[in-house]
Specification:
The protein is mostly helical. Helices cover about 70% and strands about 0% of the residues. Helix 2 (about 35-50) packs parallel to helix 6, helix 9 crosses helix 23 (about 605-635) and helix 14 (about 390-415) packs antiparallel against helix 19. The longest helix is centred in the last third of the chain and has 30 residues, at about 605-635.
Length: about 750
């Protein structure tokens, strides 16, 4: 449940396997020959995995539209099979059209996939016109099986998916708490302290991924907007509160480490442990006890002690602490104890922002389309900078050119196996947007194919003359293909090649030559795809990362502006929604940086620069998200936004962000020097020793997030090679100097 939020991957893989088995069973009962069985099985796979709309009604309409499209393609492909050259030309044109129409939406994308894949099937199986009645029957059986499995056997309404996502998110919260408890119990002098902190960071990253998945899934597929908005708000509150709790505990245990985020890209060398201060050592068992109480409140019923109720545990924690901390402990310990209460409140839904603010309630927030809350950032459309060509047009031209090269090369290399090169050229472009992405995906596919060849030989030797064992392994490979699609492209390629090995074992045609040709054709397809990406309207990693970096900075400034408005008493706007849009933009940037940050990258200095930029942006995004949550929780009678010092700091940080955006957008090396000076640190020092009234606590949280956000922006300016004030060095010691991703990703 935790590793596969919503069981989305599991249901996808099971649905594919069940559809294929049902199709094969029906066709076998009708005594269909092998070519028809292969056509039916491949059609079943495509009709299951290509339909991606979240709503069942949309899925049904797409499947219904896919039947006539597929039948027409089957007729065209079977008619052209004897005419090799004409069929190849039509194939390339069909590939172009299938990619080009993606801009029309998910249904057009799916129908394009149907057309490409089924034309490929006709050429792969070598179908003929006289087989059209049986081929049509196979297509209808495959689509019918897909509908039966999707809407009856493995039916998963949006409400059920929402409930699974929420449960998976709570389980990931529990896993982060488990890791945090281990860190706190062991203390800074524990032998495995660094390993425990690394595990904490890893689980926090998984929690963030689950929160993003919830945001994306509920934003498109929740049938009840009110329920979806409530779950999204709960995820934002709980994730931010738990991450802040973990950070305060780490700061308490390692006060000299300057830990301001859990992101693994910002880990600052080894943690040097020292004994906890004597006055804090007395309070540490109490902190661990509260962490354990929170963990019990999160756990499923079967994990609770006999006679214990999770709500009672959480309520007891809230009542026992009530924002009051022992007076004889350090400020770091007070922060940790207070953060535990904040997390308990987030879990219990005791959020002042939701109580008494009608304009920011989930109902009201869900009425606003996501584009309304993105402000200027919504105008940043990926793919529209630096070229007037539509992204789908560019990709279509690249894939069509690469496929044409792959067809020619594949025919010359192995006329009986040319389709492997073409299919490789197609799939290396899926989900890519730059030349670097194509290169990374191609190398991963090649590695997976080579390992799959070895696995195929080994499994073939094990199954020997047992066809049912080979068939079972082929089915398991199909399951593994689709279960691992979103996890590892290398593993996906491994399962694909293993499945091919098992199929050839069933046909008694598995030889070393066949699998060697598989590797050669795969390498050829990668080379052809990469050549097309370089020669046809290329989009370099630098261009794409610059565009996405600008998008992230724009969204960062938008959330900052909306937070100030909220702090000043203006209730309009979905602040947490805008913060999640920032997280989504940052996730896109993180993916686009993969060509540089993968461990095998030979550009070590550029990898270091890219990791530093990513770490600073992740830190800034965390504190911006925390600022949004803090602004939501500020009592209405506390006018933090009216404080001239706070308003001035927000204005200065916003101006510095604008100074970063301009050179990124213009492609220049230099920009306007950032404004120095900040009174936040002084205000924080004064507030640490003040009374713990609700207004003071809220003010300190806002100031702390602003302080860390300011430090991250200053560090980002230095890392990008832009002018930055000399008096701002917090959080930038590890940031290498350079001229950006402009030099780092070019």
């Amino acid at each position: 449940m935790a590793s596969d939020p919503g069981l989305i991957r599991l249901l996808s893989a099971l649905g594919t396997v069940c559809t294929v088995l049902l199709t094969l069973g029906v066709l076998a009962a009708l005594h269909a020959p092998v070519p028809i069985l292969v056509t039916g099985a491949l059609t079943a796979m495509v009709s299951t995995v290509a339909v991606t709309e979240p709503r069942p009604r949309d899925q049904a309409l797409t499947l219904a539209a896919g039947v006539p499209v597929t039948l027409v393609i089957i007729v065209v492909g079977s008619t052209l099979t004897p005419y090799r050259v004409v069929a190849d030309v039509v194939f390339v044109l069909l590939i172009f059209a299938a990619i080009y129409i993606r801009w029309l939406g998910p249904r057009a994308t799916t129908l394009g996939v149907f057309a490409f894949q089924l034309f490929f099937v006709t050429q792969f199986v070598d179908t003929h016109v006289e087989q059209l009645p049986q081929l049509s029957l196979a297509v209808i059986v495959a689509f019918g099986s897909s509908a039966l499995v999707r809407f009856v056997v493995l039916r998963s309404p949006p409400e059920r998916t929402t409930a699974r996502l929420q449960r998976a998110f709570r389980l990931r919260l529990a896993l982060v708490l488990d890791a945090l408890i281990e860190v706190a119990e062991g203390g800074p002098e524990a032998p495995q302290a660094e390993r425990a902190v690394r595990e904490l960071r890893r689980r926090a990253a998984h929690l963030h991924a689950a929160a993003l998945l919830i945001e994306k899934r509920l934003g498109t597929g929740a049938r009840a907007p009110r329920t979806g908005a409530t779950v999204q708000r709960f995820a934002a509150d709980a994730e931010t509160a738990l991450e802040r709790l973990a950070i305060t505990v780490l700061r308490f245990l390692w006060p000299d480490a300057d830990i301001d985020t859990l992101t693994r890209h910002r880990a600052k060398g080894r943690l040097v442990g020292s004994a906890v201060d004597a006055r804090d050592a007395v309070a540490l068992p109490g902190l661990v006890s509260e962490l354990r109480a929170l963990r019990v409140a999160l756990g499923p019923a079967r994990l609770l002690p006999s006679g214990t109720d999770g709500e009672e545990v959480r309520n007891r924690l809230l009542g026992s602490r009530n924002d009051e901390c022992p007076p004889d402990v350090s400020a770091a310990m007070r922060d940790a104890l207070r953060s535990a209460v904040e997390f308990a409140r987030a879990m219990s839904g005791a959020n002042p922002a939701v109580v008494g603010r009608t304009s920011t309630s989930p109902e009201r927030a869900s009425e606003k389309p996501s584009r309304e809350v993105s402000g200027r950032a919504a105008d940043v459309v990926p793919g529209q900078m630096g070229t007037r060509v539509r992204p789908t047009t560019r990709t279509a031209l690249q894939v069509a050119t690469g496929s044409a090269l792959a067809i020619v090369g594949g025919e010359l290399l192995a006329p009986q196996r040319w389709y492997w090169a073409v299919f490789t050229c197609w799939v290396v472009y899926i989900g890519t947007a730059s030349t670097g992405d194509v290169l990374v995906r191609g190398y991963r596919r090649l590695i997976g194919t080579i390992v799959g060849v070895v696995a195929g030989f080994a499994l073939a030797a094990l199954v020997g003359e047992h066809p049912w064992a080979a068939f079972a392994l082929a089915v398991l490979s199909v399951f593994g293909m689709y279960y691992m699609t979103a996890v590892s492209y290398t593993l996906l390629s491994l399962f694909v090649t293993t499945m091919i090995g098992m199929l050839y074992t069933l046909l008694h045609a598995l030889t070393p030559d066949v699998l060697v040709v598989r590797i050669e054709e795969t390498a050829l397809g990668i080379v052809c795809g990469l050549a097309a990406a370089v020669l046809i309207l290329p989009v370099g990693t630098r261009e794409r990362t610059d565009r996405l970096l600008r998008d992230v900075l724009e969204r960062l400034r938008l959330v900052l502006t909306q937070a100030l408005a909220r702090l000043g008493g203006e209730p309009d706007g979905d602040l947490l929604g805008a913060a999640r849009a920032l997280d989504s933009a940052l996730d896109d940037l993180r993916v686009s940086l993969q060509p540089l940050i993968i461990p095998v990258s030979p550009l070590r200095s550029r990898r270091s620069t890219a990791l530093a930029v990513l770490g600073l942006l992740e830190t800034a995004a965390f504190h911006t998200r925390g600022l949004a949550v803090a602004a939501e929780r500020v009592p209405s009678d506390v006018g933090i936004g009216a404080d001239p010092d706070v308003a001035d700091e927000v204005r200065r940080i916003g101006s510095n962000l604008a100074g970063l955006i301009r050179p990124v957008a213009d492609g220049g090396e230099d920009g306007t020097p950032l404004e120095p000076g900040s009174r936040i640190a002084t205000r924080l020092a004064l507030s640490d020793n003040s009374a713990q009234a609700a207004g003071v606590i809220a003010t300190r949280q806002v100031l702390r997030h602003l302080h860390r956000l300011d430090a991250s922006i200053q560090g980002l300016a230095r890392t990008l090679g832009m002018p930055a004030p000399d008096d701002r060095d917090a959080g930038t010691a590890e940031a290498p100097r350079g001229s950006e991703l402009r030099q780092g990703c070019g």
